[in-house]
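WARN retry 2 of 3 for item q-0093 after timeout on previous attempt; input resubmitted unchanged.
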Amino acid sequence: MAGSQLWKNDSVGHQRIEPQGFATHRMRIILNSVTPELAFTVPHFYSSYLLFVNGEYLSSNGQVGISDETSQPHWQHITRSFKATSDTVEVILQISNFKHSKGGANLELKLGERVKMETLQGYERAFNLIMSSSLFFIGLFGDTQMLVPFAGHLGQMGDAYDLAALAEFAQ
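OK item q-0093 returned
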């Protein structure tokens, strides 16, 4: 969705866009044909947002507000489907950020066929799970490699745990 990018002290006309604040983006999308099952994939926002499609609530993260007191950020990647009843889709995105050094969307909103968008989100979840698991096992492997010298030293001491010998060995 055009305009839904990070707020990086850019300028619109003579007005500077700060990372903190609130905004409303409106876009009208004209489809080639009426496709009944579409979906929006909404990326992680560094803030909170409300998304309306054709005047109806579709998705949100956190609490959108006009000040620090009335807003609450939340980070969550969401894919939501909706039924297109005409060849025109009106999208309204309300965003607020008062807590993070970056405001706006980290990535662009994506619109597509529901099945494809849900499949893409499934791929992303699988990728994140694989990456998290890999990091966990790399850390576990590193920890076990640090214990190998101690294991060899303990074997020489027999079954007794001599803490003084371990402390001397560690130095």
